[in-house]
Design brief:
It is a single chain. The protein has 326 residues and is α/β, with parallel strands linked by helices. The protein has helices at 3-12, 27-37, 63-68, 85-101, 113-121, 131-143, 145-155, 157-162, 168-181, 185-190, 211-227, 230-240, 255-262, 268-291, 306-325; strands spanning 15-20, 40-44, 71-72, 105-109, 200-206, 296-299. A six-stranded parallel beta sheet has the order 3-2-4-1-5-6, sandwiched between helices. β2, α3 and β3 (71-72) form a beta-alpha-beta unit. α11 (211-227) crosses α14 and α13 (255-262) runs antiparallel to α14. The longest helix has 24 residues, at 268-291. The radius of gyration is 21 Å and the shape is globular.
Amino acid sequence: MQNQDLVNQLIDCKQVLAIMGPTASGKSALSMALAQALPIEIISVDSALIYRQMDIGSAKPTPDEMAQVPHHLIDIIDPVQSYSASEFVDDVHRLVKEIFERAKLPVLVGGTMMYFNALQQGLNDLPSANEAVREKLQRQWQEQPELLHQRLSEVDPESAQRIHPNDPQRLIRALEVFETTGKTLSEHRQAPKNSLTEFDLVKIALIPENRTKLHAQIALRFEQMLEQGFLNEVQRLMQRGDLEADMTSIRCVGYRQAWSYLEGEYDYEMFLHKGIVATRQLAKRQLTWLRKEGDITLIDPYVSTLEQRVQKSIDCLERAVKNKHH
């Protein structure tokens, strides 16, 4: 099957490729190689790549890579701003339509499983962020953190049981939803979800059978980031003066540990250890989530060449078209 012909058929069937996998499993490399074989545009599914000025620690594609292949949902907000899963879903639906119109295949690439989940399962109709309410709650958290959890226990005991007292992000969001709508987060979650049927995902996951190799790759990548000037990048973020350690952007893996190290909470060796361990824990959570994904083609990135992974991806897309026609 000619490659443009294959893409045209995928567009007719409204099918979109999704390349999933844990951190450091080679998703970006596969998508860049795939762009040599198919007319594609990449939509990032990564909650760290959305932030401007956070390049090294998020393993952002290089300017050269972004010039070769159109990338979307990268550098779209400032680290002080917030971006919700529902905004992500809206953005993806808009982008998929636009990319289809350009006769190209949208390829979703990333490891933020919450985003993938929102796209596939639909979302409860939650209100968007209310900055004034959020700022007020953030100030309360800084002054008397224990009061927020106490308050949530009174208004929404179900959410209070689920959310840890030391998780300001989710605590503040739960109270913000209640203050903005008068309904608790639990009530919102029980409401029917908005179903999404605009396109289907053809899913590929890069899952290493051998966890040791993934761990080695994670450690190597973390050390390479440090060589590229990761700590200077975090230092510059600190010097802005408007960012705090408990903001969503700074809570990204690696950034949070670097921030604590630069604030003098621990020495360099401890920082290195904590940064690598936190990244491994992220990979573990991603793998747990991926195991629950149905209807997915698994590729082991450590027992195949990049060429084989590209071919397997194309085979997978051809199968999806055939299945759609039968």
